Amino acid sequence: TYQGEEKSITAPSHNTSDIVVELRLRTKESQEIFEEAIEAHPHFCLEHKISGQSTIAELIILEAGYDHHPTVSFIESVTQHDGGPDIFLTSEIEDRTLAAQALKVGVKDFFPRPLQVKKITAALDRCAARRGRVSKKRRKHARMEIGRAHV
C-alpha cells in the first residue's frame, strides 16, 4: 500500500472545454477591452490565466502596428494549416488595405478603432460556434425552433 504524503490534485483553473485565447496586443487599452470581453464570455479563457498547464491557443488576437507586414506574414504562417487557431486582428491605424489583406489570408474578424465590446462579443460567439461550442441557452432555443418547424 502507498505510504507517502497525500497531495491534492490541483483542479484546472479553467473549464477544459474553454477556448484558449492568446493575446498579442500592443496597447494597454486594447488589452483591457479584449480581456473584458473574453472573461465575460462563457466559452473562452485567457492563456495567461491557466496556471502550470501547457496549452495551445485556439484563438489568437493580434494588433498590427504601422508596419503590418510582419503581422500579415505571421497570420499566413498560422492559417496555412487546417485546424489551426482562429485569428482576430485589430489595428490602431485605419487601413482598408490591411483589413482586406488580413481577411484574404485567413483572419476571421477585423476590429477597427474604436474597439466595441459588443462587436468583439459577437465575433467570440461566431468563433465558439465554428469550434462547436454553443451555449445551453442557444441549444435550447435551436431545439425549440426545430420543433416548431416540424409542427
Structure class: alpha/beta
| Number of DSSP helical runs | 5
The number of strands is: 5
Major sheet details: 5 strands, parallel
The geometry reads as globular
Cα distance, first to last residue?
A: 62 Å
Spans of at least 5 consecutive residues with low confidence: 6-14, 136-147
Rg, Å, rounded = 19 Å
Quaternary form: single chain
Strand content: 15-25%
Could you spell the SSE succession in H and E letters?
EHEEHEHEHH
Average pLDDT score? 81
Strand order of the largest sheet: 2-1-3-4-5
Helix content: 40-55%
Structure description:
This protein is an alpha/beta fold. The protein is 40% helix and 16% strand. The chain has helices at 28-40, 69-79, 96-104, 117-130, 136-149, and strands spanning 19-24, 44-46, 59-64, 86-91, 109-111. Strands 2-1-3-4-5 form a 5-stranded parallel sheet, sandwiched between helices. Strand 1 (19-24), helix 1 and strand 2 form a beta-alpha-beta unit. The protein is globular, with a radius of gyration of 19 Å.
